[in-house]
């Protein structure tokens, strides 16, 4: 009995000691996570940018005779010029338009402009549009009172988007800087990721790491890259022609391009608006620009996407929208990439398990019935 009591005491002491160690480790991990949480999304975006730019960075390094730091600096400057400058212009437009609308509501000076006669004469829908427009023009205050709850929700969302645009630009800046550092240390990063993958997934870790790299590069170049190029060029065109809220339309176009709906619906609506607002020559130039921007999807995707990304559209849609709702502009990109990556790794893991089961099933009869000698 004495030995049993002593054994119970030793077991209890070890259990308490293990619990204290686990509790301290959990507290430390939670504390560390709370500290680095603001940097998780920018750092994830930086990794995505670095992986997407790595082939171009390697070619530039070769042209510069192996000067990796200089190549990384040049890649960062190119990213700033191609991404940050248009993003700043469109963000400024978005914030300015939101402040203008809010000020007009505050001073009750927002007026509905007269409907162009050409719109009222459109077949099938012209009469209905004219009637609704006339009711809003004659008694706009009553219309506002009627839709006040929905209007508050829409304004709150728009203000949040406008405020998040500045934060998103700052995140892009930080992500590009981190991506430049990651590119300069690419070899060490590859060794570290391979070692981590082996520790995490054993023999298949390196295979999963290569699959992750290929998936991120395909999604970044073939989906996100094309969406970003299209939305930025379209937004700059809308800004130049004087389309109201060009920044907001560019943001909406970016979301629609990422979720694979495309830029065509917004382009058609804006073309109709511009047709009634500008002269024929200006409209034709703008039409040519819009057709060029729209055709980029069909020109760049086959080149940048390579063999393509065999992923259901719902995965990209949910990842993009969920990331946008949780982390703003950067989450739009990071969410789609992370969810696609998770899907591809899950499929690879399941296929690996199926292959193992098939191999075991093929080996079982030979093991149960050895050849007779």
TrEMBL record:
GO terms for cellular component: plasma membrane. It is found in: Cell membrane. InterPro entries: AI-2E-like (IPR002549). The keyword Ligase does not apply. Its main location: membrane. It is a multi-pass membrane protein. The chain crosses the membrane at residues 39-57, 69-89, 159-184, 222-241, 247-264, 271-294, 314-341. Keywords: Cell membrane, Membrane, Transmembrane, Transmembrane helix, Transport. Belongs to the autoinducer-2 exporter (AI-2E) (TC 2.A.86) family. This is Permease. It comes from Thiocapsa marina 5811.
């Amino acid at each position: 009995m004495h030995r049993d009591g002593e054994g119970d005491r030793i077991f209890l002491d070890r259990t308490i000691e293990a619990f204290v160690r686990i509790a301290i480790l959990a507290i430390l991990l939670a504390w560390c996570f709370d500290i680095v949480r603001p940097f998780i999304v920018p750092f994830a975006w930086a990794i995505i940018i670095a992986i997407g730019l790595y082939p171009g960075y390697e070619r530039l390094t070769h042209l510069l005779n192996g000067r990796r730091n200089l190549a990384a600096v040049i890649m960062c400057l190119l990213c700033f010029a191609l991404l940050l400058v248009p993003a700043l212009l469109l963000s400024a437009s978005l914030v300015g338009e939101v402040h203008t609308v809010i000020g007009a509501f505050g001073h009750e000076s927002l007026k509905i402009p007269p409907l162009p006669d050409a719109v009222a004469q459109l077949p099938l829908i012209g009469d209905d549009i004219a009637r609704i427009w006339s009711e809003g023009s004659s008694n706009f205050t009553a219309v506002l009172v009627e839709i006040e709850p929905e209007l508050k929700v829409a304004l709150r969302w728009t203000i949040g988007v406008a405020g998040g645009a500045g934060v998103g630009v700052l995140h892009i800046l930080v992500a590009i800087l981190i991506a430049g550092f990651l590119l300069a240390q690419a070899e060490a990063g590859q060794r570290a990721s391979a070692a981590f993958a082996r520790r995490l997934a054993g023999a298949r870790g390196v295979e999963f790491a290569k699959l992750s790299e290929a998936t991120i590069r395909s999604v970044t170049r073939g989906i996100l890259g094309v969406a970003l190029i299209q939305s930025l060029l379209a937004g700059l065109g809308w800004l130049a022609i004087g389309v109201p809220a060009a920044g907001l339309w560019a943001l909406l176009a970016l979301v629609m391009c990422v979720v694979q709906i495309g830029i065509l619906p917004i382009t058609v609506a804006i073309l109709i608006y511009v047709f009634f607002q500008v002269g024929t020559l200006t409209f034709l130039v703008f039409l040519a620009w819009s057709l060029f921007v729209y055709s980029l999807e069909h020109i760049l995707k086959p080149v940048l996407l390579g063999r393509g990304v065999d992923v259901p559209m719902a995965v990209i849609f949910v990842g993009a929208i969920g990331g946008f709702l949780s982390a703003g502009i950067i989450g739009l990109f990071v969410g789609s990439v992370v969810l696609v990556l998770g899907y591809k790794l899950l499929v690879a893991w399941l296929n690996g398990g199926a292959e193992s089961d098939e191999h075991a099933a093929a080996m079982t009869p030979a093991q149960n019935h050895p050849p007779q000698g």
